[in-house]
Design a protein that fits this description.
Elements: E1 2-11, E2 17-25, E3 29-38, E4 44-47, E5 50-52, E6 58-60, E7 62-64, H1 68-87, E8 97-100, H2 103-109, E9 113-119, E10 128-136, E11 140-149, E12 155-158, E13 161-163, E14 169-171, E15 173-175, H3 178-192, E16 201-203
Antiparallel strand pairs: 1-2, 1-8, 2-3, 3-4, 3-15, 5-6, 7-11, 9-10, 9-16, 10-11, 11-12, 13-14
Length: 213
């Protein structure tokens, strides 16, 4: 099964962080804040977005748990092409590329959207009910999704965000596919509503599963 990937790069003017990029996979998921890094020995690598913890360590907000080799190779090539175009003064985007995961294994491992939540109780932020991590089709993990109670009492998943220079915020991981977004909402909210267990993993029911394009 072929998948599509394309990138938009933003030059940083930094010798070690060459560019920051947004990567679009299958027009379903956009991963923002990917970095193109150059090491002291001249090697160039792609890095998925991270957040800095209070203790100075870093946590990846996005992780690839299967097919890392083919995915990271495709991601790096796509970002590097967009970066090269930007250096030449051309539009800082890459052409759409295709890549293929191992078909038989991929079909066997498709598991829809799984969720794991950590309930929290913050007196100064009562609307924030839990933090969720999700796994999509057993290869893409998104961490630190906030489950927020809206005024009507419904629980809404909010993707990890970053602050922009103008004071606004945007999602680090943007879900562009409405079906996938609904499956994420279903998996996280159904698990949150299970009051019998304070913390556990769960998978959406078979008829609620999202199959990546």
């Amino acid at each position: 099964m072929l998948h599509k990937i394309r990138s938009r790069a933003y030059l940083t003017g930094n010798d070690s962080v060459l560019a920051v990029a947004d990567v679009n996979i299958d027009d379903a998921v956009i991963i923002r804040d990917c970095r193109l890094l150059k090491s002291a020995d001249g090697n160039i690598e792609a890095q998925l977005p991270q957040i800095k913890n209070k203790d100075g360590t870093y946590t990846q907000t996005v992780q690839l748990i299967n097919y890392q080799s083919v995915l990271m190779k495709s991601l790096k090539a796509s970002i590097f092409e967009a970066y090269t175009n930007a250096l030449k003064g051309n539009p800082p985007v890459s052409k759409e590329k295709t890549f293929e995961m191992e078909k038989e294994q991929f079909e066997l491992q498709r598991q829809g959207v799984k969720a794991e939540i950590r309930r929290i109780n913050l007196p100064d932020c009562p609307a924030l009910k839990a933090i969720a991590d999700i796994t999509i089709d057993n290869w893409l993990v998104v961490r630190n999704i906030r489950l927020v109670a809206e005024k009507d009492g419904k629980i809404k998943p909010v993707m990890p965000q970053k602050s922009l220079p103008d004071g606004t915020r945007c999602d680090r991981v943007a879900i562009k596919d409405d079906t996938l977004l609904e499956k994420i909402r279903t998996a996280t909210t159904q698990l949150y509503m299970r009051h019998d267990v304070p913390q556990q993993s769960a998978i959406a029911k078979a008829d609620d599963m999202y199959m990546f394009p």
